[in-house]
Prior knowledge:
Elements: E1 2-3, H1 10-19, E2 33-36, E3 60-61, H2 66-78, E4 83-90, H3 96-110, H4 121-124, E5 127-138, E6 144-154, H5 158-175, H6 182-196, E7 198-199, H7 215-221, E8 223-224, H8 226-239, E9 244-250, E10 254-262, E11 265-269, H9 271-274, E12 283-285, E13 294-295, H10 302-307, H11 320-323, E14 331-334, E15 340-347, E16 350-360, E17 362-366, E18 375-380, E19 390-395, E20 404-407, E21 418-419, E22 422-425, E23 431-433, E24 437-438, E25 445-448, E26 459-460, E27 463-466, E28 472-474, E29 478-479, E30 486-487, E31 490-491, E32 500-505, E33 508-513
Parallel strand pairs: 7-8
Antiparallel strand pairs: 1-3, 2-5, 4-6, 5-6, 9-10, 9-13, 10-11, 11-12, 14-15, 15-16, 17-18, 18-19, 20-22, 21-24, 22-23, 25-27, 26-29, 27-28, 30-31, 32-33
Helix pairs in contact: 2-3, 5-7, 6-8, 7-8
Amino acid sequence: MKKKLFIVSLVLSMCFSMLSIVNVQAKETIREDHYVNPIYKDVKSSVVHHDIQTYSLEDVEYTSDQEKLVKIFREKLINRESNIVLYYHCDEEITQEFFSNLVHQLFQKAIKHTGNGKEGDYLKWHCQGWTVKASISVNSNKGYDLNIFYDVSYLSSLEQEEKVDEEVSNLLKSLDLSNKTDYQKVKAIYDYICSNVTYDHDNLNDESYSLKYTAYAALINKTAVCQGYASLFYRLALDAGVDTRVISGEAGGPHAWNIVKLNGKYYNLDSTWDAGRSTYAYFLKNTNDFDDHVRDNDYQSNDFIEEYPMWDESYTEIDCNKYGHNYSEPIYKWSVDNMTVTAQRVCANNYEHVEEETVTAQKIVKDPTCTENGIITYIANFKNNAFKSQTKIVDGKKATGHKVVVDQGKKATCTEDGLTEGKHCSVCKEVIKKQEVIPATGHKVVVDQAKEATCTNTGLTEGIHCSICNKIIKKQGIIPALGHDFKDGVCTRCHNQLKGQWKQSGNKWWYQYEDGSYPARK
């Protein structure tokens, strides 16, 4: 739905500004709403809020799809946009309660954990808060179009986050984590943070300096408070492919730490408290061994605990030579081109003990047909009996489509069936359009009239032929001419008269017809 909204008049606009009224045609006045990140409720905002223009002078597209709006919202948060506008459509009347629920719900969905290091908790812990206003109009379909205007405060700028992106990429390359186990990745990242980031005691009580809470401060300035430590671990671990969350709670005061997933469940870890230690006291701990940290209520809910189950035991390295290995189920990772597969299993007694094998897969290609896509099958077999053969099937080339050939039609005749036009594929021979039989039409009989013979002309018997194909069905027979039947020089049938002449022999005269006969004597 596209709609162009206009300011009705300058006076009306001024009234809205003075009264902070943000709706146009709703029955209930919609007041502005706001959100303050509870983690930073006492932190002085360093961001200047901008005046919000609650009317759009451009053509915009409204949607009732909240997930679409959430995706747009998330991208704008990642880009650190201060003024964010979302265009929402609904059919029900928009009340203050509806509006408040909607704007908070959109934000919570936008900062939901996705597994992407720049999203989820990273956004949550870098957003200080927002103010939101709206304008409402009734569209031509009598539904409601809602312009939602967020004015967002961040702890870090876009330029600072671009610097973080660059440094994260360089750091992960230097740590060389591409072929490491999840434990090795976590350990390398944790070691780096604990060895390179110091606690920012200098700015701890300076609430005007909000940068100390960011991953930027930890990574670039190498000094931060707990939120910076936890956010940096979150970013690095997720970018390395290991799931993690930031947890807030109490640990002698408001605090933040992480949980990280290894071998199917999660461990607690606190890089802030382990920073600078030669021996870690808060690395990969279960809940009991982490009892000086108390989670906030959101992280103690049944839903959260079910989604993020914790290991019953803290991670400890066991002497496998003495107690033996306790390997997990193998994990198989295919290369991007599917030509190699790496099988890996990790000993639960000591995550440093890893069995790994990389093999080249056999590639079997099934060519596409006219109607079916091709298939590429990759098969990998391992020497280590602990690893099972792996098969991966992917789409190959697209179906080629039929090569259509027209089967010409054939007109039915009097005696032979015809065919309609048809089509078939010249490659696979599949009949696309079947030719139908057109029955023979049969002869259209015409009688050839008989003709009587005359004295001088032949006659014909009655015959029959087809007026369509001209085939003679009954041939006409020839009746011979009858010849003349003269009597006294006149034909009895046609009355033709014979010519003659007088002839003399001495004193005798006589008359002779041309056929040599003589007139009858009377």
